[in-house]
Every structure is written in structure tokens, then in C-alpha cells.
Design a protein that fits this description.
Helix content is 34%, strand content 15%. The protein is of the alpha/beta class. The chain is globular, with a radius of gyration of 14 Å.
Length: 144
């Protein structure tokens, strides 16, 4: 790792969709400039299959990912903690170390239980990608 590497933790409630997609995007778009982990305040048993499918469509493989509890990733010191859902922002435990907290709230695609839910996953996937591109390029939190 280079001295300019930014250590990022992405938090969500279930760590099954939004935070997993953000982790994948940060790795893909950040190249060697970021290390990233994701976790949840109440992780689900598995990554949502539609999150895996939506990310596969853009060439990012989440099939080896699994939901993690936030306490299980606290041994690392993070420069940035990014919450991607309001519930995680409101219930996240205090993390040790000095870091900047960012909140980028996205609609929960896993809440869409219709036959066309993949469309919601794609829309949120693209919003997350746009937010990360903006932040990596400018250092500014995106507005959406």
C-alpha cells in the first residue's frame, strides 16, 4: 500500500446490497488508491442475489462477498466511514480512531419485492457508482 491509500469502511444495516455494491465499486474505481471493507449493523445471512447480478452486469464480481458485522471489521483504522442507509447512520456504534464520517443515503433495493426488482438494483447500483466517482474525483460528497 502507498502512503496515499485511503482506508474506507462502508456501512449499511444488512450489508447485503447497498454496502456490498459500494465495496465493489470502491475497489473497481479506486484502483490502488483505496482499501475498502463493508459491514452491517444487523447483517443478513447472504449478499442479495440481485445485488450480485446487477454488479455482474457491469463486470464486478460480488459472488465471493458475505455480510459482516461492523464489530468484526473494527480492528482496522479507517480514514472514512461511509454510511449508505439512514438506519446505519443512526445506529452505528462509535468506531475507534480518527476518521471522517460521510453519509450517502440510497434507497434500499432489497425492499423492492416486485418482479421488476432488478431495475431498482440497477438504479441504485448506478447511483452508488456516480457518488463514488464524484467523491474520488473531487473529495466532495455527492448530492443525489
Amino acid at each position: 500500500m502507498t502512503p496515499t491509500t485511503r482506508h474506507i469502511l462502508v456501512l449499511c444495516t444488512g450489508n447485503s446490497a447497498r454496502s456490498q455494491m459500494a465495496e465493489g465499486w470502491f475497489r473497481h474505481l479506486g484502483g490502488g488508491t483505496v482499501t475498502v471493507a463493508s459491514a452491517g449493523t444487523a447483517p443478513r445471512p447472504a449478499v442479495h442475489p440481485l445485488a450480485i447480478e446487477a454488479m455482474r452486469e457491469v463486470g464486478i464480481d460480488l459472488s465471493g462477498h458475505w455480510p459482516k458485522l461492523v464489530q468484526d471489521v473494527m480492528e482496522t483504522t479507517y480514514d472514512y466511514v461511509v454510511t449508505v442507509c439512514d438506519h446505519a447512520r443512526d445506529t452505528c456504534p462509535v468506531l475507534p480512531g480518527a476518521h471522517q464520517s460521510l453519509h450517502w443515503g440510497f434507497l434500499d433495493p432489497a425492499a423492492d419485492e416486485t418482479d421488476t426488482a432488478i431495475r431498482t438494483f440497477r438504479r441504485v447500483r448506478d447511483q452508488i457508482a456516480d457518488a463514488i466517482r464524484t467523491w474520488l474525483a473531487t473529495g466532495q460528497s455527492p448530492t443525489h
